[in-house]
Amino acid sequence: MTALGADAVADVVRAEYGRVVAGLIRRFGDIQLAEDALGEALVIALERWPQDGVPPNPAGWLTTTAHRKALDHLRREKVRDEKYAEAAMLTDDTIPEPTGPVTDDRLRLIFTCCHPALAEPARVALTLRLLGGLTVAEIANAFLVPETTMAQRITRAKAKIAKARIPYRIPDQADIAERLEGVLAVLYLVYNEGYLSSSADNADRQDLAEEAIRLTRAVRSISSGIGSPPEVDGLLALMLLSQARRPARIAAGGSLVTLDEQDRTRWDADLIDEGHALVRECLRRNAPGPYQIQAAIQAVHTDALDASLTDWAQIAALYDQLMVLQPTPIVALNRAVAVAELDGPHVALAVVDGLKLTAYAPWHATRADLLRRLGREDDARRAYAAAIATTENPAERAWLASRRESLGGPTSRRGSRA
Predict the structure, then answer these.
(1) Chunked mean pLDDT (size 10), the chain, 418 residues
(2) What sign does the dihedral 402-394-252-249 (CA atoms) show?
(3) Pick the CATH number of 6-89 from 1.10.3210, 3.30.450, 1.10.1740, 3.30.70
């Protein structure tokens, strides 16, 4: 085993978090016990692995260590009920495998956390915490709410699961149909966190992005029993078409590369072909939903061999459809980007200024770009500075700083603080 630095060990641990905690929850039926036990195992890993090296099977090592810690917790509490007796008898070789339509522990965990007894924001937040090991701060950023609010939301969700005795069981077909919308929402946000991380430590988290795609494929497979809802295809297409651009998204120096500046020859043609095929199938079924429309927008972008060939009229029309289904400020912000290409930056700026998404970095970045195009450089510099202040993502910060510096003026002479 090769010794690694603490940061590298933390990356390995984070990549394995969802798999391990899902298995522990299946074994013990207790979210808090599983998280506490895994937390102790992680502390041991961060102490030992930098010196001893990462074991050949990190997930297995964490699972075994956390399993022992969980049993220690139960012994210390002098629990002698049936749960303890059953858990104490389990070994790595005798843990029963799940059966039924969902056999993947992580997917099973998502369906469990998406129980209708929980409010939708709580479902999504709790699953992001358990599946990806995201911090409360990262989840709060994804929801655009204060960290304390998110911490309370997650704590209450865990308490409700325990109090209501929501079972950690394999969903049947009726459960899958009832919980599908919440599951898709979770997978969408997991993918978004992987695609552009809210953390200051990572530009993206490909382990989360790839896991979201894998789980969405699994959902698509099991949902065939309820007629394969087209929104499942839409979400998978949206992920694939976004993921196809990944090789061109981050520059060698770590800065974000925007869509119009990307080298499109580096895009993954196989993912694009698969995504386009799914979009065509959605169009054939003619039951549009938000994920399908977003996938269609991505299909238009990836269909253009050069940014100058982008069909902005079609993109604007698709955003018009999306606004009917999801009339949110963020959808309106994205639509304004297309409006700027069709009607000019002055028209788009009026729309953007009316949205007041002051805690959202893309709002500031969009305003900055529109102000730059209008020649209002001082205002643009201030908007870029505000965007930098509202994002922790290193690639995004580097790109914003470079745009601000390109304007010249006082900021460039002082040097970037990003």
Answers:
(1) 60 79 86 90 87 85 92 76 51 42 72 82 83 80 83 89 74 77 87 74 74 90 81 97 94 87 96 98 95 98 95 97 96 97 97 93 96 96 95 89 84 34
(2) negative
(3) 1.10.1740
